[in-house]
């Protein structure tokens, strides 16, 4: 684990894990652990608070875990579909954000551009949480770090392999791992590598945290000896379907044959929703190595922990 150097300075928003220190991430993971053991903790924390959820893309887990989590913490959740807002008719993000700030105590946004969540944070003056953009999915990565911790595997010697498409989920996982000083292996096609700016950002902080990103173009090499193998869809929301990309990534499918290269006790993770028989077979998803349902449950505990971190004190 990374040595904790930075003092904990509370952030108002949660837009990307870049803004969070190892200390803060571990603190939130600790809170998630407590909340998983006792769902009644902090049950009045958000009493009298209204938090809206503005979603431009589909969601099951993020929406439900925040709605249930806000309710369990005593708050009121207002779900908004951008279809029905005046923004759809041209009201600017800045003007909308100013209004949101007058009515609400917080906003969870799922949208396309990262700059949209940044603009909401800047102009609303209230706490803004990124519920997924094209670039990042920090709530997922935070929750996944908690799942790895909860499984007793969050330690320096962990071999964690992410396989397949380099996307918002892998970007946030890479940042989270780098923040905690842990290595991450990315098994991907040379045509669909992690974005250069993410690699550059991580190489900047890795010098301090001591973590490495190991890129492997051979799936068996990427998975060899892995304690955890993780994948996500090959076509993310908002991406154009591409037969060429799917063919290129097909050798990174998590199936029993590929999993045989991993540790005998390997755990398999997927942020879900899964495209069965594409990036992962049903045999693996429903098999003995899969922890995807615990992983999905942990979104609830991790989202509550994030809210406790942002709203307490
Ligand atoms: N993993 C995840 O964010 O799931 P949803 O798209 O269902 O919210
Ligand atoms: N990469 C996926 C994650 C879904 C939770 C997407 O953006 O569609």
Domains counted in the coordinates: how many? 2
Q: Radius of gyration, Cα only, in angstroms?
A: 19 Å
C-alpha end-to-end distance = 27 Å
Please give the largest β-sheet.
5 strands, parallel
The tally of helices reads: 12
Percent in strands? 5-15%
| Total E-strand runs | 9
Q: What is the CATH superfamily of the largest domain?
A: Aspartate/ornithine carbamoyltransferase
What is the string of SSEs from the N terminus onward?
Answer: HEHEHEHEHEHEHEHEHHEHH
CATH architecture of the largest domain: 3-Layer(aba) Sandwich
Describe this structure in words.
This protein is an alpha/beta fold and 313 residues long. It has helices spanning 22-37, 61-72, 93-103, 114-124, 138-150, 168-179, 196-209, 219-223, 243-249, 256-259, 282-285, 292-311, and strands at 50-55, 76-81, 106-110, 127-130, 160-163, 184-187, 213-216, 228-231, 267-270. A 5-stranded parallel beta sheet has the order 7-6-5-8-9. It has a 4-stranded parallel beta sheet with strand order 2-1-3-4, with helices on both faces. β1 (50-55), α2 (61-72) and β2 (76-81) form a beta-alpha-beta unit. α1 packs across α12 and α3 (93-103) packs across α4. The longest helix is centred in the C-terminal third of the chain and has 20 residues, at 292-311. The chain is globular, with a radius of gyration of 19 Å. The structure holds phosphoric acid mono(formamide)ester and norvaline.
């Amino acid at each position: 684990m990374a040595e904790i150097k930075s003092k904990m300075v509370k952030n108002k928003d949660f837009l990307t894990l870049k803004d969070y220190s190892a200390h803060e991430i571990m603190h939130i993971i600790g809170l998630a652990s407590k909340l998983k053991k006792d769902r009644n903790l902090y049950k009045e924390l958000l009493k009298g608070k209204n938090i809206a959820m503005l979603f431009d893309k589909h969601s099951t887990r993020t929406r439900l875990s925040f709605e249930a989590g806000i309710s369990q913490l005593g708050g009121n959740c207002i779900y908004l579909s951008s279809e029905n807002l005046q923004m759809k008719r041209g009201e600017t993000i800045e003007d909308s954000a100013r209004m949101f700030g007058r009515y609400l105590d917080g906003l969870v946004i799922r949208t396309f551009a990262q700059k949209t969540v940044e603009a909401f944070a800047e102009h609303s003056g209230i706490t803004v949480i990124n519920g997924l953009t094209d670039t990042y999915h920090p709530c997922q990565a935070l929750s996944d770090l908690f799942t790895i911790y909860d499984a007793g595997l969050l330690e320096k010697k962990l071999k964690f392999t992410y396989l397949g498409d380099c996307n918002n989920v892998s970007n946030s996982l890479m940042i989270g791992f780098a923040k905690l000083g842990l290595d991450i292996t990315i098994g991907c096609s040379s045509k669909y590598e992690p974005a250069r700016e993410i690699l550059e950002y991580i190489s900047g902080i890795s010098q301090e945290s001591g973590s490495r990103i190991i890129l492997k173009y051979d799936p068996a090499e990427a998975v060899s000896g892995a304690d955890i193998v993780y994948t996500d869809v090959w076509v993310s929301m908002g991406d154009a379907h591409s037969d060429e990309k799917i063919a290129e990534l097909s050798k990174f499918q998590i199936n029993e044959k590929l999993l045989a290269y991993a540790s005998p006790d390997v755990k398999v993770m997927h942020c879900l929703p899964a495209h069965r028989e594409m990036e992962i077979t049903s045999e693996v998803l429903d098999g003995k190595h899969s922890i995807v349902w615990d992983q999905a449950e942990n979104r609830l505990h991790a989202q509550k922990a994030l809210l406790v971190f942002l709203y307490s004190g």
